[in-house]
Structure formats: structure tokens, C-alpha cells
Amino acid sequence: MKLPDLSSAIEQVADLIIQSKRTVVFTGAGVSTESGIPDFRGPDGLWTKIDPEEFTIQRFLSNAESRQKHWKMFAEGGLARNAEPNAAHYAIAEMEKLGKLDCVITQNVDNLHQRAGNSPEKVFELHGNMQRVRCMSCRKLLFMEDVLERLRSGEVPECDSCQGILKPDAVFFGESLPRKTLEAAIHHSRNSDLFIVIGSTLVVYPAANMPAYALDSGASLVIINIGSTPLDLRAKVRINAKAGETMSKVLERVKSDLTH
User: Fold this and answer.
1) Residue 189: CA atoms inside 13 Å, Cβ hemisphere, count?
2) Is 149 helix (H, G, I), strand (E, B) or coil?
3) CA–CA separation, 132 vs 109, rounded Å?
4) Angle between helices 243-258 and 87-97 (to 10 degrees)
5) Which is it for strands 128-135 and 141-143: parallel, antiparallel or unpaired?
6) Residues 250-260: b if buried by 16+ CB within 10 A, e if exposed
7) pTM of the entire structure?
């Protein structure tokens, strides 16, 4: 597959966005890493430092020592809790402001799309959100910062309503994806006319099914990612470059064309 030069590819993506009525953006770890958040599967990813077995739902629920390790990691700033949105997040938020975004479907759990300005109701978090904590018994939601304050004061975090086990509201190994979120993501993917993948290698399922649903429904596919994906040959435009730099240039072109 011969890739167009970057300038030409950016122009093509901008034109597709302008022409589109229902653009869905799908984001993966390659967007978060530009905010300093480590990925999971890369050469220096989280799984090279932490045993993935510690992140199974079975281990977390059955083993108090495992839960203690998790909370210690979060209290020490694990997963770059204080990370800030980057240029890619702001460009995607700008798409919404311009009326050129149907929704964001994300594999990321960092809440950065919302902090950049995307409406929460337009962000479908397939793998949950690490800024929230949920009680596994009564399902009460809390803010992560509130739970961490209790942890720093020496308190073992448990639900203050029912004394149930508290768990970060992200999907652990062995857990199903949130059903309503998954159903909404599938619906928006199937009803899109342009589907833009940013920063995902498309190897984690069922999330990676979303661009295939879009393609099968006749949508155009754009992939912006460093490294190959299984759907590269089906993409109308394929850009092998950083998310922030690329999306900033795309949005510059979109805004320029919309105002002329």
C-alpha cells in the first residue's frame, strides 16, 4: 500500500470531515501516550513492569493483598493521574464545536477527552474511566480523588454506604465491557459515514470491532497511528504519524475551508 505524502493525506482527511454528516472518532493508547500516560502493551508498557494477572477482576475481588497493591499504585500517582489533554484531544474537541463530530469512542480510561472539551454524553468509554470508583456491592459511584484522600490518611478504602469493595471504574481482565456503552458504540459505528481511528493498533477486542462495523455499513475509514493495524488495507487514508501533530494540522485545514 503506497502512502500519500503527509500534506496530501491531511488534506484528504480534512475534506472527508467537511463532507461527512456523521463522523465517529475512535481513540486508543497512542493518543494518551502523548500526554505522558504509559501504554500497556508497548516495549516500555505497563505490562513490562506490572504482572497483568494482578489486573484480573477475580484476583482483585478475592485477594485483599492485591487490592492493597492497586490502591498503593494509584495513591503514588500510577497511570499518570495528573496528565493533561494534548493537541489530539483538543483537535477532537474542536471538531465537536464545529459541528463535525457525531461522537468519540475510546479505549482510554483517562477522562482527557472530557477535560479537553468534548461533551461527556458524546464520549463512549469502552474500558471505563479511572477518575471514578465504583462499589462492587451497591454500585455507588465516587470520585477517585475522594477515595485517594481517604487512602492517604491511612484508611483502607471501602464503601461508606455498605462497606463493599471499592474498585476503579475501569474494565479489568475477566470483566465484560459496560453493556449500554458497548451497544451505543456499535450503533454509532454502524451509522457513521466517516470513521477515524487515532492511536490504536486495533488488536484489543471487542473494541477493535468498531471500525469493521463502520466499514461494513459503507463508511470511509481513516487510520492515524504509528505502526500497522489489521485494517490498513481497507483505509481510505492511512497516516503513520503522531496523533497530536496530525490532528492539529487536519483541524487547521478544516477550519480554514469552513470559513472560506
Assistant:
1) 24
2) helix
3) 10
4) 30
5) antiparallel
6) bbebbeeeeee
7) 0.90
CA–CA distances in Å: residue 113 to residues 30, 185, 221: 14, 16, 21
Condensed to tens digits (0 to 9), the pLDDT of residues 4-49 reads: 689 999 999 999 999 999 999 999 999 999 998 876 555 554 544 5
Instruction: Sort residue 202 into left (φ over 0), alpha (ψ -120 to 50) or beta.
Output: left
By the 8 A CB rule, do 100 and 25 touch? no
Q: What is the pLDDT, as a whole number, of residue 1?
A: 45
For residue 62, give the nearest of 145, 140, 161, 172 by alpha carbon: 172
CA distance 123 to 184: 10
State in Å, rounded, how far the first CA of the chain is from the last one: 34
What are the two backbone dihedrals, phi and then psi, of residue 44, each rounded to the nearest 5 degrees? -110, 25
Cell numbers placing 208: 477493535
d(CA 204, CA 188): 19
Tally of residues, the chain: 260
CA distances from 133 to 80, 185, 210 (A): 16, 22, 26
Residue 140 to residue 182: CA distance in whole angstroms: 21
Active-site residue numbers? 127
Other beta carbons within 10 angstroms of residue 104's beta carbon come to 28
